[in-house]
Amino acid sequence: LSVPAICIDGPTASGKGTLAVEVAHALGYHYLDSGALYRVTGLAMRRAGLEPTPANEARISALARTLPLRFDAGKAMLAGEDVTDAIRSEAAGMDASRVSALPSVRAALTTLQVGFRQLPGLVADGRDMGTVIFPDAPLKVFLTASAAHRAERRYKQLISKGISTTLDSLRSDLEARDLRDSSRSVAPLKPAEDARRLDNSSLSIEQSVEQVLNWWQEVQ
Ligand code: C5P
Predict the structure, then answer these.
(1) Distance 42 CA to ligand 1 centre (A)
(2) Residue 37's pLDDT is what?
(3) 131 pocket-lining for ligand 1 (C-beta < 6 Å)
(4) What is the per-residue pLDDT for 161?
(5) What is the pLDDT of residue 11?
(6) How far is the CA of 4 from the centre of ligand 1 (A)?
(7) How far is Cα 40 from Cα 88, in angstroms, rounded to an integer?
(8) CATH of the domain at 190
(9) What is the pLDDT of residue 210?
(10) If phi over 0 gives left and psi between -120 and 50 gives alpha, with beta otherwise, what is residue 74?
(11) Residue 148 annotated as binding?
């Protein structure tokens, strides 16, 4: 019998992380934030003095294959250093999006991601959880929200952390990231054929969690 898995994929700032954490908590399952792996790879790349270009693909994927990364109580630790905040900046998101378009970087991170699927179950969020990493998952959710809603949420998150930004620059960043993520040739952002779509533009987090838990019951 395979280990239970729920995939939550969708564009930037659609609320996948919050939803996936809440669903994992409700079910007592493990949680995989696959975007964090690309973000940490981007950070490791910068620290090695490299730019996210195809010419550096072999060197970046070598870094990804041997990432000294641990998740510890919700914190991302890179070689013992807490990089939880460093990987959350818009610049780190942009770097993540660039390194994630390199095929051998994606391949390097595959085994690591598959390893998160352990009993009693996993909730994984990202762009290709349902299409590439866990194609046999019994429940795949494709989460969306309008670009305006997503920019607004990201704005509030950053402002509450004391990071200054503008709504306009966030919206153009996230549209650029969506475009790159959806148009790349490997594992582009798209709903799996058997994904259930959820638009949370006008849903509370509780309502979204309830919907996913109902679907999970349905597929059992
Ligand atoms: O989800 P998050 O914004 O943290 O992801 C950062 C970037 O990593 C995304 O813009 C995307 O390019 C990439 N990513 C990916 N595949 C995943 C998760 C994230 O390509 N499964």
Answers:
(1) 11
(2) 98
(3) no
(4) 85
(5) 93
(6) 23
(7) 10
(8) 3.40.50.300
(9) 98
(10) left
(11) no
State the residue range of the domain holding 158: 5-219
Tokens 């959806």, located at residue:
182
12 lines ligand 1 (CB under 6 A): yes
Distance CA 5, CA 25 (A): 14
Among 165, 96, 167, CA closest to 126: 96
Say what the pLDDT of residue 90 is.
85
Which atom of ligand 1 is least distant from the CA of 98? 12
Q: Which stretches of the chain score pLDDT less than 70?
A: none
Backbone angles phi and psi of 168, in degrees to 5: -65, -45
* CA dist., res. 128 & res. 135, Å (int): 9
- Using DSSP's 3-state secondary structure scheme, residue 217 falls into helix
Answer yes or no: is 18 a known binding residue.
yes
Tokens of 67: 């990432």
11 is an annotated ligand-binding site residue: yes
For ligand 1, atom 4, which residue shows the shortest CA distance?
Answer: 35
Q: If you measure from the C-alpha of residue 109 to the centroid of ligand 1, how many angstroms do you get, rounded to a whole number?
A: 12
The total number of structural domains that make up the chain: 1
Q: 166 labelled as ligand-binding?
A: no
**Among 28, 209, 32, 35, residue whose Cα is nearest residue 119:** 28
